[in-house]
Amino acid sequence: QEKSCHLSAALLGEDSEISQDQLYELLKYAALGKCHSAAQPSWCRIYHQSHLAGVVVVVLHEMSQLHFYRFYLQFKHLRKVFRHRFTLAPSANFPVSLYGEGTNLKSQNTPQGLTSTSSECITKSSNLQCDPIIQRYGEKKQGLTSYTLTLEEQKKNDYPIEGSPGCKGYISTECDQQRTDSSPLFGLDCEMCLTAKGNEVTRVSLVDARGQCLLNELVKPESTVVNYRTRFSGITKKMLLPVKTRLSDIQTRLKKMLPHDAVLVGHSLNSDLQALEMIHPSVIDTSLLFARSEGRRFKLKFLAKAVLGKEIQCEQKLGHDPTEDARAALELAQFFIEQGPTKVAELNLEMLLTAEKLAEVSQNKAVLQPQGCGFQEQLNEPPPLSKPCFLDCLQMTGQKTLLLGKEGLDSSGLCQSNPSTSNKQILQRALEDVPLSKFSIIQFSLGPEYLASHLHAGLHEKVRSKLTDMLTIYAGPFEENFCMKSVKKEFGRCGPIQSLTVVTETFQPYVCIQYEVLEAAQLAVESLNGAEVAGSCIKVQRPVTAAMLDCNVLIKELELDVENEGVIYVAGLKKSLTETDLQEEFSQLKDLETLFLPKDLQSGKHRNCCFLKFQKTQSAVDALEAINGWTMKGSKLRSRNALAPGHLWRWIWQMNHSNGKQGKHIFYEKMEQLSDSEQDLRKKVKKLDHHIKKLYRSLQNNTLCIVLFPGANSTQGSQSGLGLMGIKHDEGRSAC
């Protein structure tokens, strides 16, 4: 049974702010595992990393934590799916911090730099004894039987084997293993589409030793096609409509066409045979024949150009041509057999690949550069550090990477600017390409008209104002000479108070109380409305403003937020209690996982409340019933479900203490000017959430998905980012 990956992260509380280096640490380990010195991240843990199907990072260009909570109701999918959320420290150059600073490409981009690099590679390659090809095959020329895969090699590389549990129902070509050095070679290649069943063959090509095409047939898949992968397969819905040929027909034809001692040649031929559901004993796999170190493989496109001098899989063509690919693989095998390992090693393929990559980098100055700004890798200045570039590490392991934004991709995988690309086009491309890639970065953007600085400032003020209103309650009426100390004591039992003032404009006095946490204000409304306080039966309510009309809806959605599952808020604690004291007091509660005791970020003192996270939701429900009415060290406790995820506590504190104290009339005047833009923005955000939902649903199980609001760190000010992450499982929601 396949192991299920899952993610563990203790992100409750103040430690939930993650630096760019920590994010890089996670991405590197998720994609590379223990290769290239990648270690488990210090702040979270991925279990069974080797079983990850892939890593998908969705970047919401120039958006911050501010956008997520301003449009919290519109981000319906994001807040219900991802269990783990963290504040992301803003970065002045987000792409550099995401991918790693890379090597100093400045000198390598110059002709002198390329020459010195190439010379160094030639010098190193002059000692052919170290070449992986020589180490595997020796220096002498041998017959083709020396290059066919052994049974053990076939098993190791996932070839269908007679009698294997996963090959039940597979058809054997009935060829024997009595091959000789004069046995005939046949090139084979298939194109596949993604169906409800998985990868199914939709086109098959077979060529003989002279390169003559013996078979080039379209195949009707058994199951419904989910993704035609037209860009790679060249297959369209229209092409398959008249097709009658089925897989069984192809299997029968191949059995008749192949002589008893046939040797099949292909590039990663195991995938073709698995899709054909056929078993063949004699194979040469050119992805393994041209050996590299550390299990890496050359791509067929590169080998065809470097060894044969042929251009295949050209961007101008719609999809790959299987006959062209089959012929290329066949000719590569023939070249290797005729020339021998030494001649192949002397080609210095590693050096040629390095030179090709450097040439591509020098021609493409920007990586992920949407609409001329933002995502740009500055190659004209040497970076201050020498941390390996994350994308380079991926390429070194032969993993396919995908970078999609408001631009197109060239054959090297680097991006070129194309401002006309819409989010919808990016989504369509992602749905097609992400399943083919081990590591993908997909960037969406609201567009420059929605990210203007004046609009961003307006959003910040709106969020700050609404947050203030949600933290504020009005209580009263009280008698003229009421005891303020009694009021403060009673309302203080609901949580930490930031300010308390008497409202004198009314006939009888009221008290305006602003709390530091949302749970405290909500607890006061729920527990003290209609209660007798300081000798008066009072009403407790929040301010009534246009912005607060949806407050109850927002409170309900916050309670249902997936990150708040199993988390409760407890107030009424004595400030003298330490975290150790509380751990001891609450130790009797079943399945308690984490305790977070908030601090005043200026004084460092503990507040009179805490958050408890339980392993099971039912345990949190039971704890709520048990705690309400508890007396701890002479203080009566109050509790309720958590509203603000752990990472949000610091942000709320910062918003409360920011300099946003404009006059109300000035504030509303500005907001009226922005109302039309914000209405459009709400629609854009809702559509963006739908795009991410569609992309997420298309991901394979055991895919790590991370959604990033990068934030901003510029001369205009700093805005914290936000990260949401989880590993997709069958139930559609990200796993813990």
UniProtKB/TrEMBL annotation:
GO molecular function, one term: exonuclease activity
Pfam families for this protein: RNase_T, RRM_1
CDD domains on file: REX1_like, RRM1_NEFsp
UniProt keyword annotation of Nuclease present: yes
SMART domains, A to Z: EXOIII, RRM
RRM domain mapped to chain residues: 471-545, 566-644
Biological source species: Vidua chalybeata (Village indigobird)
Membrane-crossing segments per the record: none
Record-given protein name: REXO5 exonuclease
Record gene name: Rexo5
Keywords attached to this entry: Exonuclease, Hydrolase, Nuclease, RNA-binding
InterPro entries in the cross-refs: Nucleotide-bd_a/b_plait_sf (IPR012677), RBD_domain_sf (IPR035979), REX1-like_exo (IPR034922), REXO1/3/4-like (IPR047021), Ribonucl_H (IPR013520), RNaseH-like_sf (IPR012337), RNaseH_sf (IPR036397), RRM_dom (IPR000504)
Example of a GO cellular component annotation carried by this entry: nucleus
